[in-house]
Amino acid sequence: MHLAVIATLILSLFTNPVSDSFSDTFADPSVIRGQDGYWYSYGTSDPLREGEKVLHNLPIARSSDLVNWTYVSDAFGPDNLPSYAAPGSLFWAPDIRYLDGRYVMYFTVTNTATTPANWDYSIGAATAPTPTGPWTHIDAPVVAPRPSGNSYWNTIDPAQFTDVDGRKYLYFGGFFGGLWVTELSADGLRATGQPQQVAIDNKFEGAYVVRHDGYYYLLGSSANCCAGPTTGYSVLAGRSTSPRGPFVDREGVPLLASRAGGTPVLDQNGNRFIGTGHHAQLTDLSGQDWMLYHAIDRSDPFLDEPYGINERPMLLDRLDWIDGWPTVRAGAGPSEQSRQTPVTRGVVNDRFAGDLSGWRNTAGWTVQEGHVRGQGTLISRKSLGGDVRVETDLKTDKSAGIRLGGTTAVVSRDGLTLTSGGASRTVALPGGAATWHNLAVTVKGRTITAEVTEARLRDPQASVTVTGSANGPIGLVADGSADFDNVSAAPLFKAVTKAVPTPRTGRLLDADEFNGPLDSRWTWVRQDAAARTEEGVLRWPVEGADLVGAANKASVLLREAPKGDYVVETKVTLDLGEDAVRNYQQAGLVAYASDDDFARLSQVAIWNTRQVEYGRELTFADRLSYGGNIVGPPARTTWLRLAHHVDPANGEHEFRAGSSRDGKTWTWGGVWTFPKDTAVRLGLVAHGGAQPAVNADFDYVRVYRGA
Do the record's keywords include Nucleotide-binding (predicted)? Predict the structure, then answer.
C-alpha cells in the first residue's frame, strides 16, 4: 500500500474515549459549535483526573475536530455561583444552547437555598457572550424544587428545545418523578405555564429532544448511571408529532405507560465500554449526525478508590437514522476505535481570519472582527458538484443567504425562502435572523433542502424543501448589509440505511416444553417444592427471596449450556398488574455461574413501572456489585432471549438480551460478559416478593444454535 494511503487511513482513525487527552472522567457531556468555529463540550462537576480530588464546576473543553479536545476552564469559579445554590451544592448535567444572540447554559443544582432540605434539586441557568463565559447567573431557578412528601422530585438533567414556531421548551426530570416538559419565556430563562409529564418515573433521566423528518424524538437514559463495573445505562427513544407528546416507541408503546415503552438507541455491546448514556447530539459539516455520551471502562470503573466516583469519560460515535429511528452505528453500539471521523473542514472552509483571497466579487465586502460583512454576491473560487451540504452562520436585518448555482436560500423578515429554477417556497422564521443563525443547504439529487437553526443542534426553526438543480458556484448573497462566518461546503454524507444484524435462531438444540415432569437435565439450586409442571407450563409461584446481595435465598432452576454460539428462549406469563407498586417481583432467564456471578433477564415490577431488566451481579474489589440494563417493554406474556457468543479475540462469553411482546418482533438490548474460563449454566428464576401471590408460568425453554 502506498505510504500516502496508509497515512490517510491513520489520520482518519480516532480512538474512544475522545476525552482522554484532558480528563479521566467527563460525564453528562453537552456540545455546541461556537461562533468562533470551535466545538465546545461541557461536563458534570467532577475531578478531571485520578488523584486530583478537587471538583471542577462544570468543566469546559474545546476542539476543532470533535476528536481532539483540550480543557479550557470551569464555567463557575468559587466566587461565581448561583445565589440560590445552598453551600456545598453540586452542579450536574449542563445543557448548552445559543439563544437570541447569547449562550445559555442550563444545569442541575443539587441543593437549593430556598428550602431547608438536602437534595432539593432545581434547574438553574446562566448566560454568556462566548462559549467560555463570563457566565452571568439568573437570580432564581428556571425550575424550582418540586416537593413530594418528605423529599423532592428529581428536577435534574435539563435539555432545551426551540420549535419551528419559536416557542422554547425545557425538558427535565429523572427516575423519581419521571420526565417533564415546561414551556419557557421568550428569553428562555423562566418557566411558564404548567409543566407536563412526558415519560414515566423509574425508567428515564437525561432527556434530549430533537426534530427529524417532522417528528419530535425524546431520547432518555435508562437504568443506572453509576454502578461501577455493573453499570447498565443505555439510551432509549420515543417520538411524537408534538413537542409535548405523547411519545411512543417503535411498537407504539407510550413512554408514559406502566409497561413503559422505549426503542433502543445506544447499548453496551460487549467491548470495554458499559453504561453508555446521557448524551448530546450534533451535526457535522457533511450533514452526518453524531452522538457525544459518557461510558464506563469496565476494567477501570472508578475515578480513584473502588465505590467512589464513577469514572465516566466522553465518547463520540456516528448516529444513524434507520426506518425513522435513531441508532448509534446502525445498532452496533459504542466503538473503541472508529474509521469514520466527523467532517469538520469542508472543501470550502472559511472563518474569515485573514483576507478574501479565496473569493471573487469582493467589492463591498470586508473582513472585520473575525467575520465578513458586505452586500451583493461574494463567490467562492472553489466549487463542489454532486450531492453537497453548504452552510454559513449569518445575521441580517434585511435579506441574506446562500447561492448554489441557480438555487438561492435566503432569510429575511418574511422567513426562509428557497428558490430553484421555477420552484420557490417560503416558510416562517420566528424572530428573523437579526442575531447569528446557521443556514444550511443540502442537495441530494434533485431534492434541495434549506434549514435554519441557532446552533445546529437538531432543532430547526425553519425548514423548506424544493425540487430543482443546484450545480454551480457557491456564493454568499446579501440585499443590504449582512454578516457571514464559518462558511463551508462539503460532500453530503452517505446515509446508513441498513441496521447491523441482530441475533437469530438456527436449528433447535435442546428444549423442555413442560408437557410432563421436569426432564432429568434440570438441576436445582435451593429447590422450590412449590414449582410444578401442569397444564403444559412450569407454574412457579414467585418467591419472597432474591439472588441480588449476599443472602442468596432464591431458588434457581438450571441446565447445562451447549458449546459455541446459541440462543436460549422462554415464554413467561406473569401478571404484575399495572401502576401499583410490586417491588421487585420478577421472572425470567438467568445465565448463572454462581450465586454471586450471574446475568438475569426478567420481566420485573420496579415501583409503578413494568420493565424488562437485564441485570448483572459480580464481585469487584471484594464487594458485590449489581446493576441493570433495560430491554424492550414487557406484556403480561413476554418472550425472552439470551444470545450467547464467544468473543474470538479474548474468549469471553457475551450474552445479549432480547425481549418481545408477541414472539415475533424482538427488541435487542445490551451485552453482559463473563470471563473466558467461566462455566455458565442456563436457567429460570421467579422471585423478588411473594406478596401479592402470583404465578410465573413458563411455556417452554428452547435452546437454538446461533445463526
Answer: no
